[in-house]
Amino acid sequence: MVQKPHSQKALTRTYPYSPYYVQSAIMSETKELTFQEIAEHNTKKDLYLIVHDKVYDCSSFVDEHPGGEEVLLDVGGQDSTEAFEDVGHSDEAREILDAMLVGTVKRMPGDPEPKAAHAAPSSSSSSSSTAGFGVGLYAVVLIGGAIAYGAYNYLQAQQAQQQ
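== Cytochrome b5 heme-binding domain-containing protein ==
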Protein backbone atom coordinates (compact mmCIF):
# COMPACT_ATOMS: atom_id res chain seq x y z
CA MET A 1 0.00 0.00 0.00
CA VAL A 2 1.33 3.44 -0.94
CA GLN A 3 1.36 5.97 1.84
CA LYS A 4 0.00 9.33 0.71
CA PRO A 5 1.54 12.54 2.03
CA HIS A 6 -0.92 14.69 3.92
CA SER A 7 0.40 18.19 3.67
CA GLN A 8 0.86 20.51 0.72
CA LYS A 9 4.54 20.80 1.64
CA ALA A 10 4.90 17.02 1.51
CA LEU A 11 3.13 16.90 -1.85
CA THR A 12 5.49 19.51 -3.27
CA ARG A 13 8.51 17.68 -2.04
CA THR A 14 7.30 14.23 -3.14
CA TYR A 15 5.59 15.06 -6.43
CA PRO A 16 7.34 17.97 -8.17
CA TYR A 17 4.78 18.00 -11.00
CA SER A 18 1.71 17.98 -8.79
CA PRO A 19 -0.75 20.90 -8.98
CA TYR A 20 0.41 21.93 -5.52
CA TYR A 21 3.99 22.22 -6.76
CA VAL A 22 2.99 24.21 -9.82
CA GLN A 23 0.75 26.50 -7.76
CA SER A 24 3.46 27.13 -5.18
CA ALA A 25 6.02 27.76 -7.93
CA ILE A 26 3.72 30.28 -9.61
CA MET A 27 2.82 32.02 -6.37
CA SER A 28 6.48 32.29 -5.36
CA GLU A 29 7.19 34.26 -8.55
CA THR A 30 4.33 36.71 -8.02
CA LYS A 31 4.56 40.01 -6.24
CA GLU A 32 2.22 42.52 -4.66
CA LEU A 33 1.46 45.62 -6.71
CA THR A 34 -0.36 48.75 -5.61
CA PHE A 35 -3.12 50.39 -7.64
CA GLN A 36 -0.72 53.21 -8.44
CA GLU A 37 1.84 50.79 -9.90
CA ILE A 38 -0.80 48.91 -11.87
CA ALA A 39 -2.32 52.13 -13.28
CA GLU A 40 1.00 52.90 -14.99
CA HIS A 41 0.62 49.77 -17.14
CA ASN A 42 -2.17 50.87 -19.48
CA THR A 43 -0.69 50.87 -22.99
CA LYS A 44 -0.81 48.26 -25.73
CA LYS A 45 2.82 47.25 -25.14
CA ASP A 46 2.57 47.34 -21.34
CA LEU A 47 -0.89 46.31 -20.17
CA TYR A 48 -1.87 45.07 -16.71
CA LEU A 49 -5.40 44.07 -15.71
CA ILE A 50 -6.87 43.25 -12.32
CA VAL A 51 -9.34 40.36 -12.14
CA HIS A 52 -10.47 39.17 -8.70
CA ASP A 53 -7.60 41.01 -7.00
CA LYS A 54 -4.99 39.24 -9.12
CA VAL A 55 -2.79 41.19 -11.53
CA TYR A 56 -2.22 39.92 -15.07
CA ASP A 57 0.23 41.15 -17.72
CA CYS A 58 -1.88 41.00 -20.90
CA SER A 59 0.62 42.81 -23.13
CA SER A 60 1.38 39.70 -25.19
CA PHE A 61 -2.32 38.94 -25.68
CA VAL A 62 -3.61 42.33 -26.85
CA ASP A 63 -3.36 41.49 -30.58
CA GLU A 64 -4.83 38.01 -30.10
CA HIS A 65 -7.85 38.99 -27.99
CA PRO A 66 -11.02 37.85 -29.83
CA GLY A 67 -12.92 40.95 -28.69
CA GLY A 68 -10.29 43.29 -30.12
CA GLU A 69 -7.58 45.33 -28.47
CA GLU A 70 -9.91 48.22 -27.60
CA VAL A 71 -11.74 46.05 -25.08
CA LEU A 72 -8.53 45.39 -23.17
CA LEU A 73 -7.18 48.92 -23.50
CA ASP A 74 -10.42 50.34 -22.06
CA VAL A 75 -9.85 48.48 -18.79
CA GLY A 76 -6.05 48.54 -18.79
CA GLY A 77 -4.36 49.45 -15.54
CA GLN A 78 -7.54 49.06 -13.50
CA ASP A 79 -9.91 46.54 -11.96
CA SER A 80 -11.61 44.73 -14.83
CA THR A 81 -13.30 41.98 -12.81
CA GLU A 82 -16.82 43.12 -13.65
CA ALA A 83 -16.08 43.46 -17.37
CA PHE A 84 -14.36 40.06 -17.44
CA GLU A 85 -17.22 38.27 -15.71
CA ASP A 86 -19.98 40.06 -17.67
CA VAL A 87 -18.64 38.59 -20.90
CA GLY A 88 -18.82 35.05 -19.57
CA HIS A 89 -15.36 33.84 -20.58
CA SER A 90 -14.76 30.15 -21.27
CA ASP A 91 -12.55 27.86 -19.20
CA GLU A 92 -9.92 28.13 -21.93
CA ALA A 93 -9.91 31.93 -21.62
CA ARG A 94 -9.48 31.60 -17.86
CA GLU A 95 -6.52 29.26 -18.38
CA ILE A 96 -4.92 31.76 -20.75
CA LEU A 97 -5.44 34.47 -18.15
CA ASP A 98 -3.90 32.31 -15.41
CA ALA A 99 -0.75 31.96 -17.51
CA MET A 100 -0.33 35.77 -17.48
CA LEU A 101 -0.45 36.14 -13.67
CA VAL A 102 2.22 38.50 -12.33
CA GLY A 103 1.00 39.24 -8.83
CA THR A 104 -1.74 40.31 -6.50
CA VAL A 105 -3.18 43.68 -5.57
CA LYS A 106 -1.72 45.29 -2.48
CA ARG A 107 -4.57 47.29 -1.00
CA MET A 108 -3.69 50.68 0.44
CA PRO A 109 -5.92 53.11 2.36
CA GLY A 110 -8.02 55.10 -0.11
CA ASP A 111 -7.92 52.45 -2.85
CA PRO A 112 -11.23 51.60 -4.51
CA GLU A 113 -13.07 48.58 -3.16
CA PRO A 114 -12.68 45.36 -5.14
CA LYS A 115 -15.33 44.92 -7.80
CA ALA A 116 -17.42 41.84 -7.20
CA ALA A 117 -18.78 39.87 -10.10
CA HIS A 118 -22.54 39.98 -10.49
CA ALA A 119 -24.18 37.24 -8.51
CA ALA A 120 -26.00 34.85 -10.76
CA PRO A 121 -29.71 34.66 -10.02
CA SER A 122 -30.68 31.50 -8.21
CA SER A 123 -31.37 28.75 -10.66
CA SER A 124 -34.65 27.72 -9.05
CA SER A 125 -36.32 31.12 -9.39
CA SER A 126 -35.10 31.83 -12.91
CA SER A 127 -35.81 28.37 -14.26
CA SER A 128 -39.28 28.13 -12.75
CA SER A 129 -40.38 31.49 -14.10
CA THR A 130 -38.93 30.71 -17.52
CA ALA A 131 -40.37 27.21 -17.53
CA GLY A 132 -43.82 28.50 -16.56
CA PHE A 133 -43.77 31.00 -19.38
CA GLY A 134 -42.60 28.36 -21.87
CA VAL A 135 -45.27 25.85 -20.86
CA GLY A 136 -47.97 28.53 -20.83
CA LEU A 137 -46.98 29.75 -24.27
CA TYR A 138 -46.90 26.19 -25.58
CA ALA A 139 -50.40 25.56 -24.18
CA VAL A 140 -51.78 28.75 -25.78
CA VAL A 141 -50.31 27.83 -29.17
CA LEU A 142 -51.60 24.26 -28.90
CA ILE A 143 -55.12 25.35 -27.90
CA GLY A 144 -55.15 28.05 -30.59
CA GLY A 145 -54.15 25.47 -33.21
CA ALA A 146 -56.88 23.10 -32.05
CA ILE A 147 -59.50 25.87 -32.23
CA ALA A 148 -58.33 26.89 -35.71
CA TYR A 149 -58.46 23.25 -36.89
CA GLY A 150 -61.94 22.78 -35.43
CA ALA A 151 -63.19 26.03 -36.98
CA TYR A 152 -61.77 25.03 -40.38
CA ASN A 153 -63.48 21.63 -40.25
CA TYR A 154 -66.77 23.19 -39.09
CA LEU A 155 -66.72 25.73 -41.92
CA GLN A 156 -65.86 23.01 -44.45
CA ALA A 157 -68.81 20.93 -43.21
CA GLN A 158 -71.15 23.98 -43.40
CA GLN A 159 -69.99 24.73 -46.92
CA ALA A 160 -70.51 21.08 -47.99
CA GLN A 161 -74.09 21.12 -46.64
CA GLN A 162 -74.96 24.24 -48.61
CA GLN A 163 -73.96 22.70 -51.92
